[in-house]
Amino acid sequence: MVVVLKQGSSPEAVAEVARTIRELGFSAHVSEGLERTVVGVVGSASGRDEVMQALLALEAVERVVPVTSPYKLASRAHRTHGTKVRISADCEFGEGAFHVIAGPCSVESEEQIVQTALAVRAEGASALRGGAYKPRTSPYSFQGLQEEGLRHLAAAREASGLPIVTELLDPRHLDTVDRYADMFQIGARNMQNFELLKEVGRSRKPVLLKRGMSATIEEWLMAAEYVLSEGNDQVVLCERGIRTFEPATRSTLDLSAVAMAKQLSHLPVIADPSQAAGRAALVAPLSRAACAVGAEGLIIEVHPDPPHARSDAAQQLRFDQFADLMRDLQHIAQTLHRMPR
Ligand code: PEP
Ligand code: MN
User: Fold this and answer.
1) Whose CA is nearest to atom 4 of ligand 1?
2) Looking at the predicted structure, is the pLDDT value of residue 150 above 90?
3) Which domain holds residue 193?
């Protein structure tokens, strides 16, 4: 980082800045210009925020300009080739691949999830989603079938062969969810639950990391850094819409973030058009756009009978709507030389 001092700073003030930098274990490189003095700070990533805060607390410091990103392991600079994230023999996320995870918002019964698994597999989905532990805005809304839901997911995997993606809400559920899931979903509301991120980082199981609804791209990548820094590089980033001034859609699907995250990070990036749209009629156009912008996959809510769904009824696709969408996606992905399986 580079520290810019206020105009007319005294030699004593410059010396204090350099001393503060060295006291915190970094080296200081002073460069005196005609009007301004700048100081380069060189050192490792740890303690970076502390040194920045300490410098901003000094009277003589005008601003501190970071030169490198605060996420190291998640950045393209760390690994120039794209990371592959494998959740089953037939589902490996990464550059050149395109995979669709599909299934209901919530697991409601064994029949519902098995039927959905077989239907989405027939249309080319490579993984099954379904929430057993649901993060609901209201405590009076359906909270999920919990472990019973996980058992139904296991039955659906048995019947369809599809790997399971399901949300982990709380570190206390980790061992239970770990027994059934092939990939942990960390939801938007938990993107900055740092203890949960550390736990899934230690688990070594693939992680689908949703972007928080008010998180910047940098905060999202810092959340991924938590998982990576515990030794688990099996992270797929998922853009699921952010809060904006626009009330017509549930959230605004930030397709710029998909393109940007792919430039900044080596991790695969997918999109969740269902949570963003909030309405089934918008899911197909947003899915086509996400595929075209370079997403390496999608996670889509599909239900046998959406009007009777116990959560997110308005945004779930019927089986026939999902089949039409998969046909469109095949055309787009083929044109872009990224064949869906
Ligand atoms: C979901 O996938 O059903 C869900 C709750 O997602 P998000 O965390 O993105 O809101
Ligand atoms: Mn949902």
Assistant:
1) 187
2) yes
3) 85-335
- What is the Å distance from ligand 1's center to 211 Cα? 10
Q: CATH number for the domain including 12?
A: 3.30.70.1140
Q: How far is the CA of 275 from the centre of ligand 1 (A)?
A: 6
The contacts of residue 93 (CB under 8 Å, 6+ apart) are 84, 85, 86, 87, 99, 236, 268, 270, 296, 297
For residues 43 and 93, state if they share a domain: no
Determine, yes or no, domain membership for 330: yes
* Number of C-beta neighbours around residue 17 at 10 A: 22
E strands present in the chain: 2-5, 27-32, 37-42, 61-65, 85-88, 91-93, 99-103, 127-129, 164-167, 183-186, 207-210, 235-239, 269-271, 297-301
Same-domain check for residues 59 and 108: no
Paired with 242 in beta bridges are 252
State pLDDT tens for residues 7-18: 999 999 999 999
Domain count, the chain: 2
Same domain, 42 and 97: no
Q: How far is the CA of 41 from the centre of ligand 2 (A)?
A: 45
Q: What is the CATH number of the domain that holds 130?
A: 3.20.20.70
Full-model pTM: 0.94
Instruction: Give domain status of residue 6, yes or no.
Output: yes
pLDDT at 341 over 70: no
Is the same domain home to 43 and 113? no
Taking residues 55-66, report their average pLDDT: 96
Q: Supply the residue whose CA is at minimum distance from atom 10 of ligand 1.
A: 188
**Ligand 1 near 315 CB (within 6 A):** no
Residues 231, 299, single domain; the answer is yes
3-state secondary structure 20-52: HHHHCCCEEEEEECCCCEEEEEECCCCCHHHHH
Q: What is the DSSP string of 305-331?
A: SGGG-SS-GGGPBPHHHHHHHHHHHHH
201 lines ligand 1 (CB under 6 A): no
pLDDT single digits (tens) 109-149: 999 999 999 999 999 999 999 999 999 999 999 999 999 99
